[in-house]
């Protein structure tokens, strides 16, 4: 009995764990796919935002420099360009600067102090920046966007967008807009992951309850059949398994199995009744000839039956013996059929 309970509990537990594992694996896969898609969308949006602002700064710088093209860059133009770089950089949380044809930074947001007066000295942030000729050559052709560290100058992997500053057909310089990827992506991904985690945890708890109830409902007929089979082994064929009509078992294999099991039980009960009736009848049929044989033999032995009638009664005994032989043969045939 203990082994039977262990087997039934094992079936229910295995079914439950398998279903929960599949659901958990599905959530992990969906979570990973969601994070990848969201990351890709976020990166595309950031790159698009940097491109739009880089092009806008390039256009604004081009308009400002064209006004001073013949007389040289005035102090007011420098202030306007640097102020535009500072405001745009702060608005999109990026670093935007402009380089010349030699790859040196000529305008940046750190050129101005808070009172919009020019620094008189060296820019501590962009003074060491030097764009390589190969990188500069790619930037002169048009708006480009990629990820990297700008020849090691940025330190971290960043979004990098470049847009040439043109005056007619002439390229006056290149606007570079950079933004670190991890600084913005990590908090964004963490927020998405936190929301998905709590939603998945709640969904898993609800799924666990539903799967537990469904698993218990679906394995209930199997548990009842196991108990009934033990009663049948002890000769009690009275138990029947109820055919449940529910959402979880309606015209399915388990219902068919229950119906077949009940039919088998009915057939076994009928066979058992036939066997008991046969044994009872055979017992009665055996008792009559044995009584007759015993009586006649005792009569011959004690002299009750005269010698001239012994042959008659011995013929009767012979007929009864043949009758017993037929009954025994019938019983042996029945045993073979049951086996």
Brief descriptors of the model:
339 residues, alpha+beta, five-stranded antiparallel β-sheet, rod-shaped
Give an account of the 3D structure.
With 339 residues, the protein is of the alpha+beta class. Helices cover 66% and strands 10% of the residues. Strands 2-1-5-4-3 form a five-stranded antiparallel beta sheet, with helices on both faces. Strand 4 and strand 5 form a beta hairpin. It is rod-shaped, with a radius of gyration of 49 Å.
Shape: rod-shaped
The structural class is alpha+beta
Strand content: 5-15%
Distance between the termini: 27 Å
Strands, total number: 5
Secondary structure: helix percent: 55-70%
Please provide a brief summary of the model:
The chain is an alpha+beta fold and 339 residues long.
Helix and strand topology:
Elements: H1 2-67, H2 75-92, E1 95-99, E2 105-108, H3 133-140, E3 144-148, E4 158-167, E5 170-180, H4 181-233, H5 253-302, H6 310-338
Antiparallel strand pairs: 1-2, 1-5, 3-4, 4-5
């Amino acid at each position: 009995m203990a082994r039977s309970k262990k087997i039934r509990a094992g079936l229910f537990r295995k079914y439950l764990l398998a279903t929960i594992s599949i659901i958990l694996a599905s959530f992990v896969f969906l979570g990973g796919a969601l994070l990848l898609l969201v990351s890709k969308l976020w990166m595309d949006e950031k790159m698009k935002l940097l491109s739009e602002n880089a092009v806008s700064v390039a256009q604004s710088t081009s308009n400002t420099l064209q006004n001073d093209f013949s007389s040289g860059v005035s102090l007011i133009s420098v202030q306007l360009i640097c102020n535009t770089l500072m405001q745009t950089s702060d608005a999109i949380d990026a670093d935007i600067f402009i380089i010349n044809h030699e790859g040196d930074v000529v305008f940046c947001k750190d050129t101005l102090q808070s009172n919009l007066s020019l620094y008189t000295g060296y820019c501590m942030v962009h003074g060491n920046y030097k764009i390589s000729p190969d990188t500069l050559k790619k930037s002169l052709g048009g708006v480009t966007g990629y990820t990297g560290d700008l020849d090691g100058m940025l330190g971290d992997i960043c979004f990098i967008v470049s847009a040439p500053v043109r005056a007619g057909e002439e390229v006056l310089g290149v606007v570079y807009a950079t933004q670190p990827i991890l600084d913005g992506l990590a908090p964004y991904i963490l927020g998405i992951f936190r929301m998905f985690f709590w939603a998945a945890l709640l969904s898993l708890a609800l799924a666990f309850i539903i799967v537990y109830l469904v698993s218990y409902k679906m394995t209930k007929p199997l548990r009842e059949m196991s108990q009934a089979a033990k009663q049948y082994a002890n000769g009690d064929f009275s138990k029947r398994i109820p055919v449940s009509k529910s959402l979880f078992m309606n015209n399915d294999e388990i219902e068919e199995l229950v119906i077949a099991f009940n039919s088998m039980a009915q057939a076994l009960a009928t066979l058992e009744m036939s066997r008991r009736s046969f044994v009872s009848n055979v017992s009665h049929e055996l008792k009559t000839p044995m009584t007759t044989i015993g009586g006649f033999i005792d009569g011959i032995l004690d002299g009750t039956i005269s010698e001239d009638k012994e042959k008659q009664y011995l013929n009767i005994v012979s007929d009864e013996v043949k009758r017993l032989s037929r009954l025994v043969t019938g019983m042996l045939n029945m045993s073979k059929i049951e086996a």
